[in-house]
Amino acid sequence: MSHVRRTAVPFMLLVLSACSPSSDPDVVVDATTFLETPSAAAASDLAEQMVRSGDLRWVPWLLDLHRLAVSKVVDTTVAEGSAELSGIDHVDSRLTDFQVYGQWAQTEEIDPGVGYREWKLELYSRIDDEYRTLLDQIPDDLLLSQVHWGGAPRGGIPELNQQERVPASDADWMVPEEVVFGVEIDGESVAYPVRILGHHELANDVVAGRPVALVYCTLCKTALLFDSTVDGQVLEFETSGLLWSSNKVVVDRETDTLWQHLSGEAIGGELSGTRLEQLPVITTTWGEWLAEHPDTETLTLPGATFSPDIPDRPALRYDYSPGAAYASYYENESVWFPILETSDALALKTEVIGLSDGDQHLAVPLDELVAAGPQEIEVGNVRFRLEPTSVGVRAFDDSGDPIPVSQSFWFAWYGQHPDTEIWQAPLTSCQPVSPRNF
Predict the structure, then answer these.
(1) 326 and 194 in contact (C-beta within 8 Å)?
(2) pTM
(3) C-alpha angle 168/303/174, rounded to 5°?
């Protein structure tokens, strides 16, 4: 079976699941058999037993099987069974079925029941040995069931660590219209080209003596800049290979804590509950950034990158031309991984600027803001001064100081803030969105 490595299975694995009143002993037997001797046939038998039981608790278990691409037969069994259990027709597309039924399970908050943790840890340890420990740090089984493998092991998407920078005058490969993430700290400015971050997704760096991490989730098109110092300790981050609601989960090397990108919050590990300090970053074009920051530096184009998980693998040579990374994903409205059911007030991949004050939230569609020009918008007790670039926004407080805001796809903002309102020009019109009642 693809992606799965055989390991010894603990003798008592899944025995706890037999203690659940809703458990089907045949399912428990087949699950144990599959983990002891993984094969497409054993996985197919297990999927059939789970579907036959009619118990919704098995849906997260089925989704894990589906995600690992055991075989086409298993995928079909899982899709047809999920259709039967959910009442949602499947479309005979593995990627779409996984997204649709994962979204249903996450939105319905289906409890995976007793024994699920042991199942998830054992199954995911076949992908990457470190997942057993990393995932076990997530305290809540429901959240654990909603975290999915993104397709790469820990560190499998090579981050940039203080990538060499050069003055703008030496960056003859840059073109005015390409998109960059602009960072300015204490007078020092750096442009991080999307053509590079689209492949590496994370840059550990030091700007004006301040350790920072620029994390870019390509799936929700969100770049956030964080202060890397937590309780006096400088953290270095890398890709965990895991996702939650189609949002990147990163891990730090110092404590092995898992961090959700959009919230900057630690969701499992030594620093669980800690929230990283967010710093301003501007999405703009190289031409616009350079006009305002003629002394800026930018990243050099990385050379060949080696995969840390597969030492014998040939060096990765990315296509660093502007717009190459994730081009097919951005060309349509579909998503690849489960998300929470999202209001259709906006298309899933509409880019929005997210503004918050406490429990009050506002989504500003980027295209409308660019067309309308600079705006002053109040959310709760906070007044935001927004000055759009051609592809993003600069945000300031009442004192004129830059402040961090979120720029993301609608589905990502809504997943974090389902009680959000939507801004519409003119300034006086705000459209309320009912949380998931549509």
Answers:
(1) no
(2) 0.87
(3) 25
